[in-house]
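Session log. Operator J.P. requested a structure for one protein chain; no other inputs attached. Running the standard single-chain path with token output.
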Amino acid sequence: MSGPRFARQLIPVLAAALLLVGCTVRIGSSPGSGAGTGAGTPSSGGAASETRQQDEQDAIDVVDAFWQRHFAELSRAPYDPPRVAGGYVGEDGPPCGGTPSPPGNAFYCPAGDFLAWDEQLMEAGYRQIGDAWVYVVIAHEWGHAVQARLRATQVSVAAELQADCMAGATLQGAVDDGLVRLEPGDTDELATALVAVADEYPWADPSSHGDARERTDAFSAGASGGLRACV
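Structure written below.
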């Protein structure tokens, strides 16, 4: 994925691709990367790692730009973006309310109002799936930050699926707004990423996040119906 420019309607192609893919991404299947201070910080992974971290920064910029434009559809409050703590490795990430950062994970911390992720999580998905992986992860966690900014009545009891829905609305909306361009293969990557996050993966335990069909349905609902379909 890159920008600007756009290709309209991600979901019809994505839905077809979902019928063809299935995978499990495992942290241990790829080498770890060095710690980052946020996306764009070079690490020990060399040029490939720097490219991934640039894609992380691009994803941050795209997702934030989308919410700058569209947060008013959900709230009359001014939009105040969360802080992006960015990458860490293992247990060396920022704590959340006194709880250590989880290895192999990505999370939004309400107490500190920040997003963070294990770079090994990003590296595993990036190498096996592609750059669409970082967009899915970051858009999902940003969805949790948006939930924290909404009225309680707007936040679903199925908070993880709602964040998936918001991720779908964000990425399709960013395409429609010309903030990001879909490149050849991106829809397949997105489909694979959605299946992967619902498989046996530390970041997305199906018992709390939903199974593959629930998660892809939620993402597709947001992509086809926009933010209003998510609240």
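Operator note: The beta strands are 83-88, 106-109, 114-118.
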